[in-house]
Amino acid sequence: MDTTRVTRRARTALALATGTVLTAVVVQIPASATATVPAHRTAAAAPIAPHSSHFLGAFDATSHDATSHDVTSYDDTYYKDALGKTGPALKESLHRIISTTQTGKLTYDEVWDALKDTDQDPANSANVILLYSGRSASKNANGGGPDDWNREHVWAKSHGDFGTDTGPGTDLHHLRPANVSVNSARGDKDFDKGGTEVPEAPGNFTDDDSFEPRDAVKGDVARMILYMAVRYDGGDGFPDLEPNDKVGNGTEPHIGKLSVLKQWSKQDPPDAFEKHRNQVIFDKYQHNRNPFIDHPEWVDEIW
Asked: In the predicted model, is pLDDT for residue 58 greater than 80?
C-alpha cells in the first residue's frame, strides 16, 4: 500500500472538514550546498520553477509590481512554533526559527552574485532593480563608480558596528542593490519622513539625520529592519539589534523611527517582487525567511 498516498488523503479530508487550506512546500537547494535540509521542508518538495514562472506579464520597476504573477507558496508549518503567540513570546519563537534554519551563510564577496539573483529584474534577466531609485541596471554595473550599483546595508552596519564579516553584515534579507551615489546619500541615517528630494532618486527624501525611501519600497525597508531586530538578539557574537523611536542613533545598535517603520509596513504591504525575493533567499541561499513578509500582521503583535 502507498502510505504516502493514504497520508495525503487523510490530510486532505481533515483540511476539507476544518476549512483549512493546504499549501505545498516548494524547495530548491543547490547541488553544491552542504547544509542539511530542515525537516519542515522535506514534505512534498519540488524544484522551484525558473524566475520567469514567478513573474508573468509586464513589470513596473517603479511600483515593484507585476500585472500577472505566480509567487511560490510555502508551508506555514515553517512557523508552527510561533503560531498563536504574541508579544515577546512571538518574537523569541521567530528568532529561534529564523536563526536555526539559516543554514546557508555568505561571505561579503558572495553577496554580489546573490543580489544579481534575488533582485533580478523580471522584465530583463540581465538586470537588477535598484532599491531606492527603482531603476533597472545591468548586473555587470556593480562596483564603486558613481553610476554603478553596490551593496546597500538597509540596517546600516555602523549601527552596532557589525562590519561585513559573515553574519548581519552579509545577511541577504537586508542587503539590496542601490546606486552608489544614492547609497551615499542615505549613508547610515535612520529612517524617518521628510527632507529634500534626492536628485538621482526622485521620491526619496533626506535631511541631516534621516532618510525616507520612495513609497513603493517603504514597506520593504520596514520589514527588513524588523527582520534584523528579530534575527540578531545579542547571540552569535553579534550585537543585539533593536529599532527605537528616534533618529541620530550613531553607532548604537538601534535604528529609528519605529513608529514610522510600522506605518510604512501597513502603507506598503508585501508585493510580488518582495515575496519572490524572500522565496529565493529561502530556497537557494540562507534557507530562512523574513517572517514579516509572510505575516505582516506580526509587526503589530511584537511592537
From this structure: no
